[in-house]
Protein 1
Amino acid sequence: MLAAAAAAAAASWAGLALLWAAGGCAGEAAAGGYRRRVSLEYNPGWASSGVNLLHTRAVGVNDTLHYIWSTIGVPTVLLVYTASDNSSLRVNWTRLLSSSPAGAIRIEPADSVLYSTAVVFPRLWEYDGSDTSNLSLVKAWQIYPSYNLANFTWASLDGRLNETALSADFQGSGPEGAFGNGSVSFKVTAYESDNRDGPLPRLLHSANSSKVEFTMERVAPRGNHSRFALEILAVEEGSRGKQLQSARSIDDEYTPTIFEMAQLISEPHNHSWGSSFLQWKTAAYSSKTPHREDTVHCQYYPLQTVRNLSSEFRILQAYFGEDVERRCSLSALNISFGGEDNEAYKEKGYLSW
Ligand SMILES: *[C@@H]1O[C@H](CO)[C@@H](O)[C@H](O)[C@H]1NC(C)=O
Ligand SMILES: *[C@@H]1O[C@H](CO)[C@@H](O)[C@H](O)[C@H]1NC(C)=O
Ligand SMILES: *[C@@H]1O[C@H](CO)[C@@H](O)[C@H](O)[C@H]1NC(C)=O
Ligand SMILES: *[C@@H]1O[C@H](CO)[C@@H](O)[C@H](O)[C@H]1NC(C)=O
Ligand SMILES: *[C@@H]1O[C@H](CO)[C@@H](O)[C@H](O)[C@H]1NC(C)=O
Ligand SMILES: *[C@@H]1O[C@H](CO)[C@@H](O)[C@H](O)[C@H]1NC(C)=O
Ligand SMILES: *[C@@H]1O[C@H](CO)[C@@H](O)[C@H](O)[C@H]1NC(C)=O
Ligand SMILES: *[C@@H]1O[C@H](CO)[C@@H](O)[C@H](O)[C@H]1NC(C)=O
Ligand SMILES: *[C@@H]1O[C@H](CO)[C@@H](O)[C@H](O)[C@H]1NC(C)=O
Ligand SMILES: *[C@@H]1O[C@H](CO)[C@@H](O)[C@H](O)[C@H]1NC(C)=O
Ligand SMILES: *[C@@H]1O[C@H](CO)[C@@H](O)[C@H](O)[C@H]1NC(C)=O
Ligand SMILES: *[C@@H]1O[C@H](CO)[C@@H](O)[C@H](O)[C@H]1NC(C)=O
């Protein structure tokens, strides 16, 4: 499971640190109780549900966190932090759905924007894990052609949106044949206050954070020892990059089987108003109602700098512009599911991270 979140922490004169993360840092106290008013808007200003764009607005004291989750192009979440409790999202749908989407997504007033970042899930890898589960050691011929998530068919969010739970489920099915009757989904949840999740791995979240849970169900593997890996692209405006960190101090009371929390954080910056983090536990689960024995170990691999993006990165272009590669720093990594001692995906046909 991966939880992505945003946390804005006021740091007196030094400005603001915006944390984008999964459920809070290890050991972080749930005290404080900062609350936000959270509302969901599906395809604002567009009458069709043929495409999915979900706007989550989390309003705090004189600030707002805007999350834009979308499966237009590759699955993307854009996070914009503003210094106003009245900033709003503007989508020019004609432009967004055209071949030149630059400028189609804006936050107004523009001068209230303090910080913008994004996370994209471009592709799913499948490889033969019979020799090793370590994707870095797998031979090129053991890697199957990857699934480009931009080519998936995403179900309408109609009926998959829960205004009470502040959650939505983006479900995609693969190209006919290869994926069988399988599907992947990104379930996203926003929070109004600090707390700890009920189900495993019981992540700690705050009003500044959001969670995304990736699942694969009934996917037909292409081999008897298939394992899967998800590629993640992180976007930071300007030249500032991301850093990969690992924290091992885990609250054993809640998730005793989990040994590591990893995070991708913005590099420290002198003149920035924000920073963010994306945080995950190195555990996935092979059951819909996970118990400890269903734990599937996750491995992550070194961060790679990305220089070119295809036109499928539509939400990025719509917000950051056509020259997103020049305006932003792009880094990507893979996360694979299943360690040496875990079963391959085939046995359970279910994976949730
Ligand atoms: C969330 O953001 C608010 C506003 O910036 C800040 O006061 C609060 O401390 C943050 N909470 C956490 C848990 O980071
Ligand atoms: C929020 O803004 C109002 C009006 O500008 C100001 O009076 C108030 O002090 C601000 N509150 C905080 C916590 O910054
Ligand atoms: C909030 O913004 C809208 C337009 O975006 C404006 O009409 C309204 O007056 C603003 N409200 C406040 C309290 O500033
Ligand atoms: C939306 O974009 C289209 C195409 O770029 C443009 O013609 C139109 O004027 C834009 N609409 C608004 C309200 O800006
Ligand atoms: C995978 O293999 C690489 C190269 O040998 C190694 O550096 C890395 O630590 C391995 N990863 C894991 C999770 O064992
Ligand atoms: C995705 O679709 C595009 C065009 O729709 C096609 O060119 C490309 O080959 C497809 N990629 C995969 C991996 O199927
Ligand atoms: C929405 O979420 C609430 C709270 O988690 C839950 O009780 C309710 O059953 C959900 N509604 C639907 C339609 O799933
Ligand atoms: C898909 O589901 C249908 C009906 O349940 C079944 O007949 C078919 O064999 C399934 N296809 C695959 C590839 O699993
Ligand atoms: C996969 O497993 C099945 C059943 O155990 C076996 O019949 C088949 O030969 C295996 N395929 C490969 C490529 O090893
Ligand atoms: C940024 O901060 C570091 C240490 O805090 C300092 O050494 C460096 O000179 C600063 N850079 C700029 C451009 O201000
Ligand atoms: C990637 O960028 C380089 C340099 O800008 C360019 O030469 C190359 O054609 C690009 N590749 C793709 C696949 O767009
Ligand atoms: C993910 O793994 C695949 C297969 O090994 C590789 O081709 C790709 O470059 C990796 N992506 C990143 C960001 O490391």
Protein 2
Amino acid sequence: MLDYEEVPPRSGLLFSVRENAASTGPTAKTVADLAASSSMRDCLQWFVRERQWISDRHLQLCRIPAPTFFEQRRAEWMANEFRSLGCDAKLDRAGNVLATVDATSDGPYLAVTAHLDTVLAPRRDEEIVCGPDGKMSGPGVADNGAGLSALLAIAAAVKACPELEERLGNILFVANVGEEGEGNLSGMRYLCRQSPQAPKIHSFLVLDGPNVDHITTRALASRRFEIIYTGPGGHSWSDYGIANPVHALARAITIFSEQQSSFNHGSPRSSYNFGVMEGGTSINSIPTEARAKIDLRSESAAKLEDMVHLLAGCVERSLDVENERSVGRTAATRVAAKIREIGSRPGGELPDDSALLKTLRAVDSHLGIRAQVDCASTDANIPLSLGLPAMSIGAGGFGGGAHTPAEWFHPEGRHVGLQRIVLTLALAAAGGRALTTAATP
Ligand SMILES: [Zn+2]
């Protein structure tokens, strides 16, 4: 018997979320005019002038351990920082921090997000080090100290330039939980599907890590399953002949590997991995249980779906063969299997003609940034899978070694990354207002 656990669908939206694909996006002149306006000029300068303030916050937040599922202390610290800047900030039921520069704003929002959690966490303050040249090292300084400090820097810069507050009043700053590993994008999932704010958010700009060299517009989909075989078990000699869960599981893996490998080459790229396998209690007992965990990924949602179906088919086939061979073939001698979904990162894609992407491209050409679009698994997976405009970019500066103890971040040029974000937000937020006028009740 096979069964799947499904995720609930997103509730109805208050307005049409499909971007106007025919939108031409801002021109280079629009960006230049905005950047030259007195309030925006002050804001862009703020990032240059207040480099030390930004780096101080960056170090402080990285020193608060926040491994996935244990983000609360860092979340509370972030919320307090937003409040001390004069923002409205609260934690939602998932543990995400939500903040706005304008306490009265009620959307529609453009969300700028950064995940709170890290794969590795510091055990002592001294593990987060800052050298004389400003280079930081330690777990999480790039991924996602860069993104989180960018949220605070942008909120602080906007608060310092009151004329911008109205323009950016409907930016929702989100420091979310559950991006890494087994977190399975839980914070973003809650924000997009269950949060009272969900229907009010029209677009997402995800800040993940440093750099300005990439724009993730395609969401790499992945699904993870645990396969559990169960049977009556027995003595290896006296009960020989009853169906064996380990044999059935091994057969399923063999059939899947043989069939899947044949169509896993070329583009779109896909992968699979049986990463964990366990079961049985002793060499001379027929096991009562066998389990395996498999990770499936693909650049193509359709191909990923095919892989899931293939997996289900292979499990069914393995049961048939094992039960066919079992002596007596009664319920008492058969094995059964259950496939449990333990992780799912849905795929999706931001269309090339998306207004959000065009806006970022216009800002990039104004700032002289050349960025490549790519495909990766980020918090943007969730909104993209729901058809909402979203992309993930770095928050400036340089860095590397993510998810290792040798992680580092250098703030050189960070102000350019922050200027890029604030210009994009200011232009895309204006686009969002146009969206509401086309609202559907
Ligand atoms: Zn990250």
